[in-house]
Amino acid sequence: MNILRHELKANLKSTVIWLLSLGGMFLVFMAFYPMIKSDMDTFTKLMENFPPAMKAIFGIAMENFAKPVGYYGFVFTYTALLGAIQAMNLGVGILSKETRERTADFLMTKPVSRPKILTMKLLAALTLFLVTNAVYTLVSYPAVRGFSDGDFESGKFLLINLSLFFLQLIFFSVGLAVSSAAKKIKAVLPVSLGLVFGFFAVSAFAVTSKEDKLRYMTPFQYFKADSIAIEGRYETAFAVTGLFVVLAGITASYILYKRRDIHSV
Amino acid sequence: MLNAIEISNLTKYYGKSRGIENVTFSVEEGEIFGFIGPNGAGKSTTIRTILSLIYPTSGEAKIFGLDCIKQAPAIAERVGYLPSEVFYYDGMKVKDLLNYSASFYKKDCKGRIRELAERMDLDLNKKIDDLSFGNKKKVGIVQGLLHAPDLIILDEPTSGLDPLMQQTFFELIESENKRGATVLMSSHVLSEVQRLCRRVAIIKEGRIVTVEKIATLQQTSYKRFKVEAAADIPAGYFAAAGVNDLREEGRTHSFLYKGDINAVTAKLAGLQLVNLWVDEPDLEEIFLHYYSAEAEI
Q1: Distance from CA of residue B262 to its chain's centroid?
Q2: Which of A64, A95, A183, B64 measures 20 to 30 Å from A255, CA to CA?
Q3: CA angle at residue B290 from B188 to B214, to 5 degrees?
């Protein structure tokens, strides 16, 4: 429990900052909604000139765009991106910071096994994601609901929001596995940003190429907000793939972390 | 006498490069044991292996009869470790760090923390980031001792401590030893090991060269003589059994000597001296001369 408490304290500040960015970005995007809604005809004409690929990349599904949840699906593309970066940062950093800041000698000569250290860190990350998602939903639910005149589909909305939590778990697990496999991670941000934008780029490519197999290559395609807004459910095959990635990433991390040599300096 | 540490044929390779090879020695319960060798000889590798920070390629090590790898957490309960360089979490106060450290052990360490901090003259309310290197080291010392460990492992403990603090530190280690703690300390400075330890293991290029009582080591150890006379000293004047590394430059001769010291003083008496230096050779010299010579015999 002491490790859990320590990790929560150590990551509190960055989590608050991520929450402020997530909330701030959400509010800015939503501020445009009334304008777009009132001028939907012009906007639709404007969008017709956009290549379909472009619209797909930005997460714009025209058939649903005027509805608050449909518009929210577009906003959520960026929520997911930010949330993914937060999760990847934590995943890449939470173990590697001990070696980078050379505190590993302190922690790992204490009477606690390595699997237990990892478990505590996992629980800490899980708590942080739960807090992030709870606060984000508490902010976004009333806002999106407020913009809709009675046509608010709360089930679809919550389903979209819940996918943020799953996405974060997936990205966290990938980051954790990468940091466990890497010899040394000199700085977290370049690694995590590289990975997230890599996946984001693959995601854009997957959408434009319409090749379904490519969608398995990037977690950003496992839960498509625009299709959830229309269908009102997750795609089973991709949800299962996501679960598999989480389990594989965490299992690999346990195995690699247990065998790892902790070098001095 | 029971052994606190038993290391047998411990070998560690980093990829293809050598860490340590077939390191074997034991530390008896209750003794202060020195582990000396030049930098890069494998002291830290050995210590980090028995602490299960790194895993051996082959061989095994036991602490209090428990396997260092398989039973690491149980061992850690009774071991205090001070790394050669201490780094702690950002933004923590000294007392926060010490309390965090104490929270890992199933005992109340508050009294010990206060007592040790007082003894080391350490301010508990300062932020660790603001401390000098020496003071950080003190945090490390308190951190390593606060749970009254049965075995204290110190890796180059005195580097960065001023002489006054070294003194306090040595006294602290001695009193911990009187309390019943076994001590293993590594160093590349022979003199500090000589002060504290009863026995030492000497490691060179990853292999244990010898495990000796300090007393024996001192008897067999060389002295370095440097003699400056008023007039030229005849060539080969000092050449005799026990003399090594003889360097003759006119009026100044120098050599390493092992044996009856009276044989040298007798020769010195025959010279009109301007100056005379007699030094303990440093560790590297012992390695260069004593052990390379020993290996040939």
Answers
A1: 31
A2: B64
A3: 55
